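Milestone M4 deliverable, item 7.
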Amino acid sequence: MTDRDRPRAADQTIFTRGIPVSGPGRPESEWERADALLGVSHGMTLPPEEDVVVGSPGCQRCEVLPAPVRGPGTILLRLPHTYTLGKILSFLSHGPWPHHEREGVISIVAPVGSLAPVLSPIAERLTPVEQNETRVTFQPAGQPPRAAPQVEIDSLPAFVTKVRGGWLLDILRERRLRTVFHPILFCGNGATPAAPLPTVYGYECLMRAQVEDDVVMPGPMIEMARRADLVFQLDLAARRAAITGAAACHIQCKVFVNFMPNAIFNPESCLESTVRLIDEVGLTREQVVFEITESERLPESTYLKQIVDYYREHHFGVALDDVGAGFSSLGVLLAVRPDYVKIDMSLTRNVHLDADKALVASKLLETVQGLGMQTIAEGIEQPEELAWCTEHGVDFVQGFLFARPADPPPL
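Output delivered:
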């Protein structure tokens, strides 16, 4: 759908999957409305999914957190066929939740709190195909259906993921992300295998979160953010936590801030608040290096270059992470032409003991150095690895040999 075809905010009509669900032309009765929302009433097939457009997109994609999906309220389920419908009605008839069915739509009254105790046993009784074909929406108690500003329709697995991902939404809403700092050091600057104490060049900012007595590492948060459609919000919150944390620690050297390019909706609108925050907290732009990380395939090189160009126009450095592993290919290297290339630990770990690994790592270093880029070897844990890096002209090193990530910054 082109921009001209998108509904205007002034029309006050919200479209979900191409169906008007509020405003002019909306269905009159509650059950007609539920049928239209779930896209299957009166023999109607589900149209192709389209974006919900309300007003201008831009940075709202990153800045706005969705409302938590919690009871009390009403769950509306549309099952794919009569056999599945009968199976779930039979299960619900022996359960504690008030419910009724009309024209193939099951309405379940959910109690206060998490919806998982209601939805999880339903999902367990369906095959994967049935789950994916089941459509779900939720109406919070006390919110007039026709006044709802936006209605979202999900498959059952997607909706259950949102429900179970409430812990991440709580972290973001309550601003419980924090930053630890991992030093990046000059390689070969007065260091020896017996006394590996080179000078600190900068610190990489790493995301953590506190949930009661437990520290949550980045992996589970990124995975849940991807499944619950919170990647944009998580990436922005992590950038902000890194910048404010570095300023609070009065770091004077380089500050490496991770970002996921797939979480950038539009460089100018999504990154404007990040640039403004850097200026506000007193870090210099030349001090900050934005590090391209990837937990999934990187966007196509033209768009990635637009993001990098935006950072460079604002006088920031750019680093490419995990080169030699994952999705950071040589094609990306040539398209982005970063200031720093971080050699993945899969190539540096025990490099002094593995001739094949040493050959690959040395050729990669030779290529990167030939392109005029500075190199950072990650995952250095042994003095012999440091010695190999020094011998092969690596510019900087990072790893547990020197320090573990910490707050305040170590070394």
